[in-house]
Amino acid sequence: MASNSFGTLFRITTFGESHGPAIGVIIDGCPSGLPLTVEEIDRELQFRRPGQSAYTSPRAETDQVELLSGLFEGRTTGAPIALLIRNRDADPSQYETLKNLYRPGHANFTYLQKYGLFDYRGGGRASGRETVARVAAGAVAKKLLAHYQIDCVAFVAEVGGIAAPSPDQTDLRTLRAQVRLSPVFCPDEKTSAQIAACIAQVQQENDSIGGIIGCVAHIPVGLGDPVYEKLEAHLASAMLSIPATKGFEIGSGFAAARMKGSEHNDPFDVDQEGNVFPKTNYAGGTLGGISTGAPLFFRVAFKPPSSIKKPQETVTLKGEKTSFQTPHTGRHDPCIALRAVPVVEAMTALVLADALLKNRIVPL
Amino acid sequence: MASNSFGTLFRITTFGESHGPAIGVIIDGCPSGLPLTVEEIDRELQFRRPGQSAYTSPRAETDQVELLSGLFEGRTTGAPIALLIRNRDADPSQYETLKNLYRPGHANFTYLQKYGLFDYRGGGRASGRETVARVAAGAVAKKLLAHYQIDCVAFVAEVGGIAAPSPDQTDLRTLRAQVRLSPVFCPDEKTSAQIAACIAQVQQENDSIGGIIGCVAHIPVGLGDPVYEKLEAHLASAMLSIPATKGFEIGSGFAAARMKGSEHNDPFDVDQEGNVFPKTNYAGGTLGGISTGAPLFFRVAFKPPSSIKKPQETVTLKGEKTSFQTPHTGRHDPCIALRAVPVVEAMTALVLADALLKNRIVPL
Amino acid sequence: MASNSFGTLFRITTFGESHGPAIGVIIDGCPSGLPLTVEEIDRELQFRRPGQSAYTSPRAETDQVELLSGLFEGRTTGAPIALLIRNRDADPSQYETLKNLYRPGHANFTYLQKYGLFDYRGGGRASGRETVARVAAGAVAKKLLAHYQIDCVAFVAEVGGIAAPSPDQTDLRTLRAQVRLSPVFCPDEKTSAQIAACIAQVQQENDSIGGIIGCVAHIPVGLGDPVYEKLEAHLASAMLSIPATKGFEIGSGFAAARMKGSEHNDPFDVDQEGNVFPKTNYAGGTLGGISTGAPLFFRVAFKPPSSIKKPQETVTLKGEKTSFQTPHTGRHDPCIALRAVPVVEAMTALVLADALLKNRIVPL
Amino acid sequence: MASNSFGTLFRITTFGESHGPAIGVIIDGCPSGLPLTVEEIDRELQFRRPGQSAYTSPRAETDQVELLSGLFEGRTTGAPIALLIRNRDADPSQYETLKNLYRPGHANFTYLQKYGLFDYRGGGRASGRETVARVAAGAVAKKLLAHYQIDCVAFVAEVGGIAAPSPDQTDLRTLRAQVRLSPVFCPDEKTSAQIAACIAQVQQENDSIGGIIGCVAHIPVGLGDPVYEKLEAHLASAMLSIPATKGFEIGSGFAAARMKGSEHNDPFDVDQEGNVFPKTNYAGGTLGGISTGAPLFFRVAFKPPSSIKKPQETVTLKGEKTSFQTPHTGRHDPCIALRAVPVVEAMTALVLADALLKNRIVPL
Predict the structure, then answer these.
(1) Which among A232, B106, C319, D299 has most CB atoms closer than 10 A?
(2) How much is the ipTM here?
(3) Exposed, middle or buried by CB within 10 Å (0-12, 13-18, 19+), for A39?
């Protein structure tokens, strides 16, 4: 089944394996006339790049994008935009010892069952490396959104039970600055330090740890569509398509299950210009699947990475029980949530760009 | 934007407003040769029907389905199956008092902004009444799944902070029986009583309460597709498309954010026939978006219903602040999670039927 | 495979068998605010209705549409519009004698091979009766198009080798009036009489005859999309989806194969307001798959209907050679092209409505 | 609007401009386990390559494909297959003189109207150069089809009114050999010589000429789906998406309009093994949109190429009337139909691969 496209009107199709020659994406449906440079895309990739801090994997990809189509004299033409990122630091040899095992928490078990064969080198298509294409495409989506004053910022909200206070949703510039300053992409300075210590500890134990990413977006009223194309349905789908995700919640989320209607209903108010808006935002920015104009706010749960350097039980492809541990030379992240910040942001931008184009099909 | 279809190969398209003449669905892509009766669909609708207990709204719909196409001599023909359910107890008059207000927690604000007009009678297309079409279609999906020994059971897991113990995931027959016996669709008898008391109390306060629905499915290995079509991405989208949902989590879900890899990784084991399987199921039944053969397990958060009989602040369509309360004659549910049990089950069946057909496109 | 939907943004899904209880369609994606009445749809169905003249089959369907959803106070709401047409004159008994035969030129052979069973009554889903849903949906598309001054007229261009002169493409009102006046829907009076005589003759011989439908549309510049979504690709697909069609050509069509570039290239000219336009229209209204603003012009070939009252050789379902003839009581058309005029028009309107919505996704 | 994808289950997405850095395609949905080599793709590209004979344009592209993903140890993995073809002989300078003109018969008029800007170098995305990606993807589709004994052969059937006799549809190997031997891809030797002479003459006149491509495919019974997804509807759409096409006809095609039912109906017969088949094949291989098992046969009309070296009238972008001629240094084809043979074959393979996967969703 074709399963490598995302979006309807602003639509991406991605390809490439972790240890193959390249990762890439075709962006189809971007309106013409948008100014765009390779540097703008590289900048987003830079933010995602591994090996940047003590807390992420040391794989040393330069991740420079080659723009193959869709631009003319610095502007998009309406034609598909193809972006290519060569894999330069691929080192499949380190996977030799793992190729005959079902790796706990990994997709090689299911891929082998489904496809009869598996590109074991670095997880092939199931690798987190695949997300570089999402971030590259997200950079283009963000450029389009910026034209409409739409912006979104993702951040680390919680790691290993250490939760940052809920950030101010009204000022995205400040929020972004705080996130970029933090070594663990958490807007709260104090929590950042605690999370950094937690990750260092986990790393020392040859273990890994889970986390939660939050995301706030400023969008106009009216994005999203009724019934099966609700904005939150698309966001949920986008987030659960990111490797290692286990949950999605919007606004009050799972906490809503413990609330009463009289608490949870966001009363409408009206400002001096006569604009109606919800006074509180338990809804998280949508009603009936359509944006209210209040900040969009949601959270995404990430499991602890499955590749750990502690011994684990498993079974060989031949069906024999065995014990193994991920080689110490392997390049793995102790907390994938940290790496996922730009990915959540990119997928949000892709959902919003698609919703924006759908909504520009205005009523009479 | 066309937004009323769900699924790719097993595909439904629904229509109908809460207080219009009828609700209906076209099911396109059901394989030929499947035995099917109207009674089987009616039985599922019966389970969803309002006015069944003290804990659900008193709207008295008979909800009998008319089958308009797609069957010949008791079997599906491969042609689209159209199902029609007439609205018999529609009473738009009760909405007269609400038609000039933005109703907190309701979609009339966003629909008015997006479409310029709104069928205020009972929420129109944004009404929970729309889900009757999902349940009818789900009945057909379940029949198809049963042919492949696939089954799923949804249940009330938590209401207002009162949580049932996690049910046994291995025996779906018993689980289903427990759910159907409980007046609040909760498989645990003791918790059922507590939840019933909680709802009665909330009802007396003219308020409403949130809840969490759990769902377990038994499915073969190999359902779901890589990257953007992961099984959990489709489930998340399906669940967040149900009115009043605020969150989705699979397996360990948000709890994964507090776990270490050494705890969370499900070790593989092998049984005496040589079948490999995960010993624990923190994953919730998928790896890399593809089913492992372990039980699929996920949870869905529902907000407290927005229609409450307590006074609430809001703004009129003309922009004046006002206070109002949902009329006491209105037919509203104190806990929509209860009503959502068959809807969650139906949407699960629709996702699985689609994944099943996609997976029958077997490798060489 | 789900195969009963057409269009992307203006999207229809149809259902119903020739001799089942009803035929119907859901129109999803129609913008809100469009005034619409049941009468407008009935009027289009009236034009398609069988039994209107000596030259079409005597099946006596009233074909009155029931509008089940999507309207509020006389205007579309943006919600799906469901239309239901009951089959009142269904008489499956006449198909008893045919049910054990492979009928030459009919789909029961392929349906039986593909689905293992076949609703033999009147052709089931393969019947021309299915097109009533297309015409009903087309009526809504036409209403939307009219809002944008887009119009299209189909007509009989040729029957059994008798060809009408190419009509004036500039005045659609006159063309429509001529078509509606003709008993055989041919705008040229003299050719009409010849075609009528030809059909009468064929009918007397218990035979049938093929024909060609032409269609002219007035549309703005810019409809259609590059590469795989060219306007003519969608038109070709739409036309070849109509039962009994064998070919499609746009502008010069197959005659282009005998032309030189210096003849075929339409030179550009400029009018006094500075509007650039092609002086001739061999292109038929598009260049590179996108409309030029010149009249869209294309033709569709229809085979002679397969149901004839002459003896024919065939094979029974058990594999025995046999001879048969369609019962004289059967209600069949001697020239299906005549009946297809409103169907071609409806499918054109559906393609154009979809292209229009796609194009309203304007460049920056 | 995203418009650069084709197919549903076997799905391609293409990108790249005529004079940009590269052309490419992602093939998504190819089943795993298919042996595939770069050489097999190169061989198909070789057949399409310009500059091969006196009768095609002298652009000297080597057209070697780089395979970027989706293979592991010589077999497809089920992951997307990305193919990249660098443009090496791009020479945008020759388009400088044309960039301020609306070119008759070209898409720059419509692209400028629709997108506000146009990559004038060689037609950008509207160039025939785009079809190299179709041929590359078609090579993969053909490999998949071969596994199921499905084959197709396209050929020149007519140029400038010179028509070859209809070829034997039963022996595709011989037909392919005849086509590949002919300098003008026409299976009939005598007609080949006449067509070659015609093209030489046209070339000398600085003019161009149209033609018709025929295609025969051997496919099993059951491909294609009812109503809007008929096999011929997909073929028609595929063919009309190829640049310069003006028409499509299947089986009897436009000639059906002059035939009677008693002539046109293909009688069923039964062979000694009890297999039922149509004795004649006016249908062209389908009934009700589903393949009968008889050879699929259709024809595609191509206009004469618009780029000619004769003087032509037109208008400048500023709206002034002018005269121009395509520079003699430009690399243009006198008869694009010749170049289109492998493109028609590739698009046929893509339609059939998609139909094959759809049909493997077998009835119960």
Answers:
(1) A232
(2) 0.96
(3) exposed
